[in-house]
Structure formats: C-alpha cells, structure tokens
Specification:
Number of helices: 18
Radius of gyration: 26 Å
Structural class: alpha/beta
C-alpha cells in the first residue's frame, strides 16, 4: 500500500508525533533534501501520496517551490502547511494553493480533525479512494484512533470557524483553511463529513501463530560482529529461514541494526510496521505487537528496521530488551541481527538472549576485533553459554587458514562459510540463499550452522541418484 500522507519538514519531534498518529499511512522525506531543491525532494517520493504536509521549519520560498513541484507531479495532491500562527500567515494562504494549515503545536485530536477532514474531502471529490486510507494488516495503526475519527466524526463536529486573519485557500473547489491561536490546529471546511470511510473486513491470513510447546524452552539468538561488512545480516537471514523449515511460523527475525538495518531490502519486503512500532508503549499489548510484524513467504516473521537512523537512535535499550522477551513468549526461535560493535543496544540484546553467533571474516583486523569482543563480554559476564563462532567468506588463497583464525580468536571455529557469488545473487533477488541455491557450498555451511542450533532442522531429503 502506498502511504497516502507525505511529510516534508525539519522537525524530528513533529515527525515522531505524526508517525504515532498515522503509522503506515505516513511516508517522509527528510528536510535535508530541501537544501538541494524541490526536484530533489520529489525524486525521493515513493508511490502516489494523496496529501502532503510541508513543514515545520520551512520558509516561504521552500514551501512554495515544494507545493508547486509536488502538485505538478501528483495532480490532485492536497497541500497542508505546518506552521505556527504568525503575522505573515495570511500572505502564505493567499499566495499558495493550500488546502489546510495546522500548527506544529496542535494537539493530537486537532491533528486528527484536520487530517481526517483532508482525507474525507479527497474521497468526496474523487481525488482518492476510500481504500487509500484504510488500515492495513500487520500495521500498528490498524487499531489507532485515526480511522475511528474518520468513520465516527459527525458533520457538526467539523470546525466551521472562519480565520481571524482572513486567510483562506483559493476558492476553486479546493478545501478552505482557517487559523486559530498558536498551538491550535487549522480547521477544514468544504468537507462532507457524513461520508465516512468504511473499513473492510480484514482478510484472514493464510498462516497462523502456532502455540508454543510448554515442554520446550524458547530460544533467542543474537547474531553479532565487531565490525560491519562481515556478512552478519546474511547469516541472520539464512538462520531464520533454516529454522523456519523445522518450525514454520514459529520463527521471528528482528532487524536490531537500528541505524542501517537492511533485512527488508535483502528479503524484498515492503513492511507496514517497523521496530519503532514494535518497541512503542502501545505494542506492550501482544495483539498490537503482532500487527507490527511482516510475514515472509518462507514461513517466518520479520520485525523491520527503523525507517531512519534518527528514529532508530530514539529507541530506548530497555524497550529493545522488552521486545525480545515479548517475542520469546510468542515464537519458538527469535533471531536478532544486531548493530556492529558493542553499543548499548547490542549489550542489552546479549542480556536477553540464550545463544549468540559471532561472525568475522578471515582478515586479521576483524579476527583480532572479535577476540577483543569475546574477552570484553566475558569480563562483563554477558558472554552467552551457547555460542558459535562463524568465519565467513573464507577462501583458499587468503593467506590464512581456519586454524590460524582459531589461534587469533582464541576460540574454536564452529562453521566456516566459503566465499560464493551465490550469496550476492540471492541477496539481489531478495531470497535467502538456503532457498535460492541450497546446493551451493555456502548454503551447506549455513545449513550446518542451523542444525547446530536446532538438530531437528537437518535436511532429510534423499540424495538424487547420479
């Protein structure tokens, strides 16, 4: 589903508020792109948004250029300016083709009122379909109050006040806007509020969450590397895919690389919910948490990475630990792809897991870094009892052998994964290597890692005759 609302602004705080309100209905373009011009912003827009919010912290020229460029590329696009009540607001409304103006200090109810009115106006004027604003499965906003407002608000509750400053949008059938005092939202006229957006019955998923076996403890497995570029994400993906063959729909893969997680890109997924939603306070409810998950056709689930490094950094370490414990109450296996190094979030992950897979390539700097990492975790008392060491991307002419790696690390190597072009090909296809080319040597090594953790996942297929 394309997000119907687009935000272009420079306030992280307002973006977080709006994301809490709209969830998957919101896409954003960071304000940094505004510096390079309106065309640069337009190139970042995905899909066909129905309404764009411009601001806060955009000047008149930037807002004018963005409104002109975006409405030219997306005919019928509603334009909402996010701006405090100021003396020049009337000039903005007179010179720009605006549909509404709202203050960044407006309350959540006022934001709902304005955006709900914009949504109804777009549907009433056949500039958008009702389906564009309906909640989506696997999205935390499926239970938000936003769609309830659209569906339940009565015509008389829509604001009918005129702007004190006389500021109005151009009267050519577009929505009119009104401005109140600072901190208030801008009202919306010209909308038939009686025409609510009806919500469809959610389609029954083809999968279900299997009940946990009380006799078998759940396992949480962290995939850890001291440096980036070691193939940690590839191993996490294939570990989840391999475990799912033994426990279908009982495996969840968490992208806890909070700044640059790319699991959804490597699996060609379009998630509606992210780890930002999964670690929010409302996701403490298990039913809501389940709506933030994305189901993969390989019979496992994914908690997608944060939409931006800024949002990822805002996730509290304690919230990440709580998420792991929640998921262990739902799934047989929880696989966590961590941020490289031993930052605060990675340390919290290691506090809440039963197993860890440590990954390094065959380079001396990476191997020494891994040794240091293991020693530090042992000193902190955070080294899991169940741990495996994987040397990735090995090759014969590297100048080092696996035995050499063991001496440098100071620990035995459990699995060495040979370098293979099949890994890159599978990633470019958006498919786990275990599914794309199971006979590749790298795939066989990864399958060996899976069976070390879950012996029941051993491949029992009979060999083909020569």
């Amino acid at each position: 589903m394309n997000a119907p609302f687009l935000l272009v602004g420079r306030s992280v705080e307002f973006e977080l508020r709006l994301r809490e309100l709209l969830g998957a209905r919101l896409s954003t373009v960071p304000g940094a792109f505004v510096t390079f011009g309106a065309d640069a912003v337009a190139e970042q827009v995905e899909g066909s948004p129905k309404a764009v919010l411009l601001g806060p912290v955009l000047n008149f020229d930037e807002t004018h250029a963005l409104a002109e460029t975006l409405t030219e590329r997306h005919p019928g696009l509603a334009v909402v300016v996010v701006r405090e009540q100021r003396s020049d607001l009337e000039d903005w409304v007179d010179e720009l083709r605006l549909h509404a103006v709202v203050s960044p200090l407006a309350s959540d109810d006022e934001l709902k009122e304005v955006l709900g009115g914009v949504a109804r106006w777009l549907v009433t004027n056949e500039l958008a379909a009702a389906d564009d604003f309906r909640p989506v499965r696997h999205s935390v906003d499926a239970t938000s109050a936003f769609e309830e407002y659209i569906a339940e608000v009565e015509p008389e509750t829509a604001p009918e006040t005129e702007p004190e400053s006389g500021a109005r949008a151009e009267d050519d059938g577009e929505l009119e806007s009104s401005a109140d005092t600072e901190g208030d939202s801008i009202g919306v006229d010209g909308v038939d509020a009686s025409e609510s957006i009806e919500e469809p019955e959610p389609a029954a998923p083809e999968w279900e969450f299997p009940p946990l076996d009380a006799a078998r403890p759940t396992e949480a497995i962290a995939v850890v590397a001291p440096k980036g570029g070691q193939g940690k994400t590839t191993i996490a993906i294939n570990l989840a895919a391999g475990l799912a063959k033994a426990a279908p729909n009982s495996v969840v893969l968490v992208d806890a690389d909070l700044q640059f997680g790319d699991i959804t890109a490597a699996l060609d997924l379009a998630p509606e919910g992210t780890i930002v939603d999964a670690t929010s306070e409302v996701a403490a409810d298990e039913l809501i948490l389940k709506t933030t998950l994305t189901h993969h056709k390989g019979d496992f689930f994914v908690v997608a990475s944060a939409p931006s490094p800024e949002l990822g950094d805002r996730i509290a370490p304690q919230a990440l630990g709580r998420l792991i414990e929640q998921l262990r109450g739902i799934f047989r296996y929880v696989v966590i792809d961590t941020t490289p190094g031993l930052g605060e979030h990675s340390l919290v992950v290691l506090e809440h897991v039963t197993d860890a897979v440590f990954v390094s390539n065959l380079g001396v700097p990476a191997l020494r870094a891994l040794r240091t990492e293991l020693e530090l975790l042992r000193t902190l008392g955070l080294l899991p009892v169940n741990r495996r060491v994987v040397v990735n991307q090995t090759e014969k002419n590297a100048g080092l052998t696996v035995k050499d790696a063991e001496q440098i690390i100071g620990a035995p190597v459990d699995v060495d994964v040979p370098r293979s072009t099949a890994v890159l090909l599978a990633s470019n296809k958006g498919v786990p290597l275990l599914d794309d080319d199971p006979r590749d040597p790298a795939a066989r090594a990864l399958r060996a890692l899976v069976t070390r953790i879950a012996p029941e996942a051993a491949d029992t297929r009979t060999r083909r005759r020569r």
